[in-house]
Each structure stands twice: as C-alpha cells, then as structure tokens.
Amino acid sequence: MPETKNPALTAFVEKNYDLIRNLEFISFLIFITGFTLYEFKVTGSNVILIAGVISTVIFLYLQSFKMIEFEGSEAYNTLGSFPVVNFIFRLYYYSLCVLLISMLGLAFDINKGIAFSIVGGISLAAVFILSLFSRMKDKSKVYDLKFYFRMIVCFIFLGILLAEKGVIN
C-alpha cells in the first residue's frame, strides 16, 4: 500500500469506511434538501443548507484519505496505476469540498463565492477528464456510477446558483 502523509487518519478511514460512506450519503441528502428548500425560498432553510454543506464537506474530506485498491492495474507509469487513481480520487474529493463551500458562499452572497466556484468547477472538470482518460486506458471498474453522480449533481447546482447570480445566462 502506498504511503500517505497522515497514516493515523488513513487507518481510521479504512477501519470505518462503511460508516463514513453512509454518513456522507445522508449528509448529501441533507444538502440536496437544504438546497431545494433554499431555492423555494422556505424560511429557515439556511440552517439545513449550512448543516448539509458542512457535514458533507467533512465526510468527503475524510473519504479522501481512503486508499483506492483495485485489480487489473497496469504499470506504474500509466493513467490506470494506483498512484494516479488515488491522486484522481483525492483531487475529486477536494474539488467537491471546494465546490460545496463555494455554493454556500454563492447562496449567501459572500464575496469570494464566485472565485471559489470557478476554482472548484475547473478542478472538478479536470478530474472528470482525467477519470475518463484513465477509464478508457485501463477498463477497470474504479470509477462507478456514484463517482459521476456526485459530480453531475454538483455541476447542476452550481449552474443554478451561477445563473441566479447572473454570472451565466
């Protein structure tokens, strides 16, 4: 197994990965509920949106420490190798965290919300392209439907918020 910068956190995540993944799913549902209520201008939806974003960011950050292991990997210098796939997943989780925080900034008109959303969107688009190249090269089942579903949901919500703020038409 490749070395990480925080072996204690990696060991914690490996030991409790099913729990973290389930809690991330629940917090993502809270985020979607809060975002939907926010869009319908329901009073008090700010608390649900904030709780959903913060809890989702925490669990996504924890998931970034999971080492991805799969069979059928090619040599260590290709896009389908263990280090590259782990880098893609770590960048994926970090860019989702930045994107969710930027959505919170856009929703509450915080000054740097648009800048963070551009950074998060570009990094998530880069992850999408890298994962497609890696998937075509290796043909392994590393990138599942949930990997792309999270990405698509975040892009849709980001587009809605940017359209509301007048950044895109």
Shape: globular
Number of extended strands: 0
Structural category is mainly alpha
| Largest pleated sheet | none
Mean pLDDT: 84
Taken as a percent bin, the fraction of beta residues is: under 5%
Helix segment tally: 6
**What low-confidence regions span 5 or more consecutive residues with pLDDT below 50?**
none
C-alpha Rg (nearest Å): 17 Å
Write the H/E string, N to C: HHHHHH
Note the gap between the termini: 47 Å
Domain tally = 1
Proportion of helical residues: over 70%
Can you describe what's shown?
This protein has one domain. The chain is 73% helix and 0% strand. It contains 6 helices and no strands. It has helices at residues 7-15, 17-39, 45-63, 82-107, 113-138, 145-164.
What are the salient characteristics of this protein?
0% strand
List the helices and strands and how they pair.
Layout: H1 7-15, H2 17-39, H3 45-63, H4 82-107, H5 113-138, H6 145-164
Helix pairs in contact: 2-3, 3-4, 4-5, 4-6, 5-6
Give a brief description.
The protein is mainly α. 73% of the residues lie in helices and 0% in strands. It is built from six helices and no strands.
